[in-house]
Request: fold
Amino acid sequence: MTQTQRVIDNKYTVRLEPLGVKLRVTSGTPLKDILFQYGIEFPCGGKGICGNCRVKLLEGDIQLDEDHKKAHSSLQLADNCRLACKSNVTQDVTLEIDQFEIFVLADNSSFSFMPGTGFGIAIDIGTTTIAAQLLDMHTGNVLDSETRLNPQSRFGADIISRIEYAIHKNGQGILKQLIRKEFCSIVNQLIKRNEVKVSKVIIVGNTVMQHIFSGIDLTPLSAYPFESTKKKIIHFTPGELELNSDSVSKITFLPSIGSFVGSDILAGILAARINESDKYITLIDLGTNGEIAIGNKNRIICASTAAGPAFEGTNISMGMRAMNGAISSVTKYEGSQQFHVIGNENPRGICGSGLIDAIATSLELNKIDLGGRITGKNEVIQLLSPVSISQKDIREFQLAKGAVAAGVQVLLEKLNISYDDIEKVYIAGAFGSFINIENTRRTGLLEFPAEKINKMGNMALIGAKMCLFIEEKELYPILDITEHISLETAENFQDLFAEKMMFL
Reply:
């Protein structure tokens, strides 16, 4: 392509090694907009203080602005290294992704493991997305990753919709076939691309995903007391899943904790090391189905919240996933709102992190009152044209944030502790990696001090990777101290829910 053509379409090529991925992106696109889907974590939230998102320049260049220079110097990075969280694409560039060279936890602490042999795959089956990574079992290095949309999404964005389709429309067989076919496609793709044989596959997911994948009747999850196959490890042979038996040896779906608290939270507990901590730690997964775990090495209590899919942009009038064209952040500047659009493209909608920011900044600018009503005569709050948020969108967010905040309060009361007793708070889920902590506090979604809150990305996948290196029996002590409760049984939950919906 000539320089003239490049100027006309305003696009540049980004190559990612060792993945062999080639992307065409708009000039000025931040690297963090395109790298997250390839397994790159941003533990410090883009502050440039952890260095975990560093990339190496193989061809081309990324210019350093003053903020980037300061962070680069502080971390003592090599001249050919850049921080993805501080980098924008302004020319053709080839990058080596350092994160694929060493497996570290997102809290910047090393994971000690007993080296094994061969290769393993960790897979997180989420309601909305599926994420998988291939590891070298001897070194712990991540060799490759694959991320896809869950094909079941066409039958509903949330787990309640999936249950309804499975039971009332006799669709569980179709849902199982879809997810198993996608699972096989992902595993086969990783194996073929890297020419390896896999000794172990670890799968985690919420309880509904586990039931559907495993062919377990969803009826008990459709009505109170919402019984599930909790705390049961499920094994599969490659033949059962129609995988090439010569390529994969062992497939394990880790156990769920309770009715709507799945093995993804068990993996998150392991990744956050709640079961090893003397102090109390909180884990909040702000995914399609919000889950909360609070505890320490003596006792852990978990619950799920009816948060719905608002945090991921679903059920919002112009909501969308965190992808190109989505408003992902909104800031207040000189009495107005400024916006960041993923991919530096024309805006098409707003994702969950952008929604939180839009509401928080609208509160500051008195466009929304403390009860959540749009002030003045406008029916919507206009953002970056053509994107706006409606009164219904604000109510959807209030319902979601009220459920999460009330859930946290109930669990604290069950443990007879307060917010002050919590040493660390981990926010999990892809959505959690993009949120502005101060804005989540301004809206009342999180009521912990900002210094205690850590954005951890896909903790379920981190925990699943850890489980590739441990014996299954090591999970049972965690399950023994972990208790699941139904928030609806707490006598003050409804009062707390109504209170937490307000913007105070």
